# Entry
Amino acid sequence: MTTRKDNLTTNTQHFEILDGLRGIAAVAVVIFHFMEIVFPDPPANIIAHGFLAVDFFFCLSGFVIAYAYGNRIGEMHIKDFFKARLIRLHPLVVLGSLIGLLGLLIHPLGAGPDNYSAGYIIILFLASILMIPFPFMPERYNNLFNLNAPSWSLFWEYVANILYATVLYKLARRYLLWLAIIAAVGLTILCYVRGSLLGGWGGTTFWDGGVRLAFSFTAGMVVYRYRIIIPNKLGFPGLALML
# Structure
């Protein structure tokens, strides 16, 4: 007889090509930010849309979480799900916060610790490791997490995980599809109003991240739920170029 524990630990197929595409997307984001410094004028940036790799991460997350937990989350205690996700995500948050704190204390570039009280630095660090948005450093463009700027996307990743474990996994796929369509409309409106989708990382564009997440994450879930497969012979190189 199969025990409940066995059901909850059943391994699912690992898609190595997705790991590769995730790596390509991460490199694209790094190059994009570097090119932002070299070419402040977006038309001159050869990878001006590299920031959309973050949306790919959100979409990939929706697919992977639905695939990995879709058949067993109903049997899991919600705390077990969150524990698994914390173990998966939070070590990078803490590591990034420690590196950011060290960078602030050493301050090879920009404002150093002399510009802030010890209490303020402690608040910055605690906000960073606890994933509490604190966009109050103008010299760092009021990032949501000033010691670890890239973690804004992990913040929204946590939001997605909470919504998945409490609401999204229960939705019939037709309702999930409608939710993705509504999110797509919201994303279109956001792009029209803002002029781009380069938002979500700072205090003034906080909710942009939520809109980007809403569409991309639900789209990833829809791909899994509807088993959307497009046969092709592109292989990893072709898919990487498309990305």
